[in-house]
């Protein structure tokens, strides 16, 4: 199976800058951090996803003859630079937070340590992939949280923003917790469950609804979910569905996985009526599934209203993350390695304090409460810093320096979040399967309290700086401020 | 250049229904309409886009060995059906509204006339492609309308919902009016202009801002747009940029295309200050370009505030259509052809009047005012109906029957919107180039008044039904209603 090579899927300015570095003979090794600033939907967390596609992209990076001819045709790039590109491959290191991990704002999800030309080229594609998949995985986790253990199916392919959005979006949705997808291609590519029964058009293509149901039940007796709202859910769809279920039972066909789906109307009211009809007809184990513009808020509300829906099909609002369709991840220069191999930290100023970057070659430790296993805080620090969890630790809010937290020695455990993925251009990481990542993600979601998972005003888990990083950042800020005063 | 085959990019239920039709030996030819119900962003129109990708998809439809093996592994599909799929190709007819055309709710953008199995399979991919590209083309047209003739660049690749969303989204944005994109791959694939200069990281990788500007100007003197907000726009960026421009002038380097870009801060205030600084330094023709979370509303507001920005870079909000990220197109059964070749109309009921479909094998005429060339209304009618523009015409609102419009003979002209694209499975349509489609779209936008293009409460252009279609729909509704009463 071959896909389009994405080497040219980059912003033109990455390439004009690359040529600039080439012409100025700048081969410095730099550190870039990819991170995001705000949790989607004003939530308390996000879910990391997309790394496997980033790995494929990096592995496949090369400029073929067509690419070079196209670049030449732009009359921007000189032959010596194009020759360099002809032999281009990624030679740097990449560190990343594994897919399925719960993540928080301002911590590097991916860290690229590479010669500046290479690190610059890959910015756009890395952000594109991460921004999309982190977004949908996060939305999916929210929707599944609202469904409180009911199955949630990803049904949004037709409303996704193009084929990749539908297909990689389905992948991300499964990572976030969806039990499956309607997208057959996603099923094939990622070995995830695919589900689906029939549409209104199936019903309309038969002379009447009963015949349509009857035929469907004959064809698919072991996965017989009938869509009951083509004409009238309670007056037509339900009586016809129950008639078919009864005939199946009378014919001795085992009713293993069967039930109805509703795609319109007042789902709270209808589901209660439908449950009653099914129970009274002797079908208490019939599935009631629902779709129709669902999202986490609507599912939560339906649950509060006592809707007896056991399976949810979520389309548009999940696959586009409709109320928050962009993740907003950025990729910022954090350090430049000098001739002695020392990383010289770099900082990007902004009038908005939150937008000031964290300088230096960094890593992240997750601090867990030893008793509960829940996340206490995340700690961004400089590579090489050593912490002993048997000793007390003080961590600092990066924006509000008076906010310090003291952790008692012995009460916490530490886990480094960034793992090596590429070393000297070679991939040294093997991605788990998507279903394995879903399992990882389920465990990850257990490391945060409901207070952080709720939709309104969730509790914020702190991402703090080590003392060393905090001081370094402060020194750089003062230095730059003094420069501007001069 | 090879792309992933999208044959399996369909909802599983399309395939279970297909097998159902196969098993029940249903080879009836049916009519499906793809249409949408509401203009994005509460606007007055939408722009049609995506047809070329639909054509590629239909041409490429086939199940290869891997696909068949995967489908078999699902234990849903029988060997006889899989054998049928092995020889599957599309054999039907497709009609479509050409890309770049202004479109309105409820009119078929694509009409598929094909054996039911084929027509059903293609639903999901057609909707996916149309929903995405119509959405972004429409958003782009809105943004360009706000920019009142200034150049608008599509800069959103990194925030798009995956690679296709960035790349086909760039295509759609150019169709809607953008002068170019930052996405190099989109430039290569669709032969559209690509643009871009440098990022903050370029500035940060040099010892100081002046040196970074100076180097950039040496490398790219003929397209020298300097990013001035890395440290401080007015105190640092502008003085350094002007110093470089002066040095270029002194060195006799022609200043053809040059200027500055701002990516943060108060763009209205800063642009006026920046314009003054440039003018006073003798650079009245320097470009002032701006980016930073722009959309049509913000551009309109900046213009009202007297911002003197001449070029706009629009990212996230355009490439995701952030305030309305789903187009909502649907695909509904409209007719089934009987053994005599007559199309038997089908209607889908809904408690929501607006969701009741228009039955029958239909086409659309656009009615133009003869004097102004502007659109008077669109008319959906049955195929075969003939209208003489020299005669008076009465058209009917599909939802509110008392709303009739009478057009005087001789005052209007007619144009059929749907054109044949596939005939008996063969493509008989050649897509214009993307830049040609942009030109078509520019002319199309001239056929609607500002009243329809404005953002708040735009004037609605009516999509009405012919007398014959109106009566047919009414008869079917009464018939179904009587059935339910029985």
UniProtKB/TrEMBL annotation, chains A, B:
DNA damage keyword on record: no
The protein's Enzyme Commission number: 6.3.4.21
Reaction(s) catalysed (UniProt annotation): 5-phospho-alpha-D-ribose 1-diphosphate + nicotinate + ATP + H2O = nicotinate beta-D-ribonucleotide + ADP + phosphate + diphosphate
Nicotinate/nicotinamide phosphoribosyltransferase domain location: 152-324
UniProt xrefs under Pfam families: NAPRTase, NAPRTase_C, NAPRTase_N
Family: Belongs to the NAPRTase family.
Protein function: Catalyzes the first step in the biosynthesis of NAD from nicotinic acid, the ATP-dependent synthesis of beta-nicotinate D-ribonucleotide from nicotinate and 5-phospho-D-ribose 1-phosphate.
Protein name (Swiss-Prot/TrEMBL): Nicotinate phosphoribosyltransferase
Upper taxonomic lineage: Bacteria, Bacillati, Bacillota, Clostridia, Lachnospirales
